[in-house]
Amino acid sequence: MLGCSDNFWRWARRPRLVFYFMVNRNLIREYDISDEDWDIAIGELAEDDIGWLDATDVDVNQIVEGKIIRIDDEFVLVDVGYKSEGTIARDEWEEEEPQPEIGQVIRVLVEDVEDSQSPLEERGMIVLSKRKAEKIEKWMKVMETVHEGDVISGEAVRKIKGGLLVDIGVNVFLPASQVDIRRPHDIGEYIGKTIECMVLKIDEARRNIVVSRRSLIEAQREEKKSDLLRELEVGQLRKGMVKNIADFGAFVDLGGIDGLLHITDMSWGRINHPSEMVKIDDELEVQILHIDYEKEKIALGLKQKSASPWENVAGKYPVNSVIKGTVVNVMSYGAFVKLEDGIEGLVHISEMSWTKRISHPNELVNIDDVIDVVVLRIDEQKQEISLGMKQTQDNPWERVADRYPTDQLVKGKVRNLTNYGAFIEIEEGIDGLLHVSDMSWTRKISHPSEVVEKGQEVECKVLSVDQERRRIALGLKQMDEDPWATDIPNRYQQGQLVNGKVTKITNFGVFVGLEDGLEGLLHISELADHKVENPQEVVNVGDDIEVKVLRVDSEERKIGLSRKRVEWAAEDEAAAEAAEAEAAKSETPMELKGGIGSDSGPLFKPASSETEDAESDDTASTEELDEADEENTVKAAEQES
């Protein structure tokens, strides 16, 4: 059979052996690589491994011409001018391509020669490949015509690990990151499509070409961007396509450069997310708001294509007018009410009710509620409108003075206790302040809890009404007669001897309790006939002592006492009074002490100048404290109200 040995067909049908000598397997395997293993473009080829021989000198890895001399179901027998024919696997011819014919001349690659290390005349059968010869010749042709930076086109034929294979005559590698500017969700969508790419790198040693579609797009966009930046002007209307959406806005492709359409420039009305207005691939007509040529940033607007609803807002919504609106948002400090698309006003929590104590606005309103509001203020520059809900109703404080005149008795419930008094709710939302100083005529009240408790119902008398500042002063002690008017002066007269109990000792004297809540001051100079440095040398708290009433001051509500004068005769009293009268002529009178426990001012002039100086210092300090306490009480009452 044309020089074939008798053993040819047995040899051709046995499993092929893998020879590692004189064969560059990197070249051969490169074209049979699997999808899983071929994660880069064409494998390693070495140009030196490919030589061109004439038909008389056949060796491995050579491409030669041969004639088909026999065809069967498994192999095609080819004569390449060697002493024995070569075989090609029948499956190297795809079904869609022309099938082999006897006598046809084809180019083939010599893959292996049996006994290739023996002398030429002793060598046996050879193994050929038509497919690999075609691929190698295509590759060599591509290497001659394609250079780095060239723009090529080809069909995406297969998805492999890390990217796509693109057929440009040979398969080249397109990494997934280079498919588009923004990596697509599935690069398999490009399979079967003809795409243009830029050659990024050619590795001649490994016969590997890496291409990029992204680089080509970016280069084209950069060119378009430069041209577009020269064309754009602020105020222009341009068409573009939405390419990406973020929480703060949407990026619109103007045809080579992206601009930002911020969420605040999408609509005059309220929107929570840009996706409510636009979607990816939407075509929009936008207005150029600002161009930063240095940073190549463009601000776009959509709402600016129409007139602002804030134009002539004062004419549409005059101050004090009542209008309807829809609650669109509720915050801890108030509720936003939409008057029309693009115009919202704020109802502050303090403007929601005249009388109700509101912890959160949702106690009165919810989103989508339609409510009546009054326009309070308009700031057109800041585009802000202040609204009120309570102004749509009558203000109950305007009638408080008429309903609660001075000296009227009222009943109410103790709503809150503070250090300076109790707040009494006399009707829903209207409180009166019962100050500690108005709880008892005679008792010194340190805290209102000594007299009333929270939730208790009490009856008080209205002392005053400040309608402008929304304050009502109440009194509890005013329910009874003032004992200092007639009762106390009648029961405690000058020179009278009385018994009492020591309740408090200070450095200037002793307070003596005469009855429930009523105290008199026993000055240190009136403790004993001798000079007393420390009152505790003479008396202690809780001691029962007998004292003489020196004077009763009804206006200041104070009683002056003396212990040393208990045994004095009338002559001694007269002499002491004369001395005091003489001293009063030359000295400025000082404020009295005693009575219901106030510490401010001496009841009479001390016996010694040393004591006088100490007492004077004490008086000034106490007066300052009283003034500070009164100021703090007023401030606290204002805050509570």
Description:
Strand 27 and strand 28 form a beta hairpin. It contains nine helices and 30 strands. It is of the alpha+beta class and 641 residues long. The termini are far apart. The longest helix has 32 residues, at 609-640. Strands 1-2-3-5-4 form a five-stranded mixed β-barrel. The chain has six domains: 62-115 and 123-137, OB fold (Dihydrolipoamide Acetyltransferase, E2P); 146-218, OB fold (Dihydrolipoamide Acetyltransferase, E2P); 232-305, OB fold (Dihydrolipoamide Acetyltransferase, E2P) (Beta Barrel), CATH 2.40.50; 309-382, Nucleic acid-binding proteins (OB fold (Dihydrolipoamide Acetyltransferase, E2P), Beta Barrel), CATH 2.40.50; 396-475, Nucleic acid-binding proteins (OB fold (Dihydrolipoamide Acetyltransferase, E2P)); 487-571, Nucleic acid-binding proteins (OB fold (Dihydrolipoamide Acetyltransferase, E2P), Beta Barrel), CATH 2.40.50. The model is unreliable at 1-56, 118-123 and 588-637 (pLDDT under 50). It is 17% helix and 33% strand. Pfam families: S1. One of its GO terms (molecular function) is mRNA binding. Residues 577-641 are annotated as: Disordered. Keywords: Repeat, Ribonucleoprotein, Ribosomal protein, RNA-binding. Binds mRNA; thus facilitating recognition of the initiation point. It is needed to translate mRNA with a short Shine-Dalgarno (SD) purine-rich sequence.
Class based on secondary structure composition and strand pairing: alpha+beta
CATH topology term of the largest domain: OB fold (Dihydrolipoamide Acetyltransferase, E2P)
CATH superfamily of the largest domain: Nucleic acid-binding proteins
Q: Give the termini separation.
A: 121 Å
Question: In total, how many beta strands?
Answer: 30
Shape: elongated
- Return the CATH architecture of the largest domain: Beta Barrel
Please state roughly what percent of the residues sit in beta strands, choosing from under 5%, 5-15%, 15-25%, 25-35%, 35-45% or over 45%: 25-35%
* Rg for CA atoms: 54 Å
Distinct helical segment count: 9
Poorly predicted spans: 1-56, 118-123, 588-637
CATH class of the largest domain: Mainly Beta
Lateral arrangement of strands in the main beta sheet: 1-2-3-5-4
Major β-sheet annotation:
5 strands, mixed, barrel
Please tell me the overall pLDDT. Answer: 77
Proportion of helical residues: 10-25%
Overall number of structural domains: 6
Indicate the multimeric state: single chain
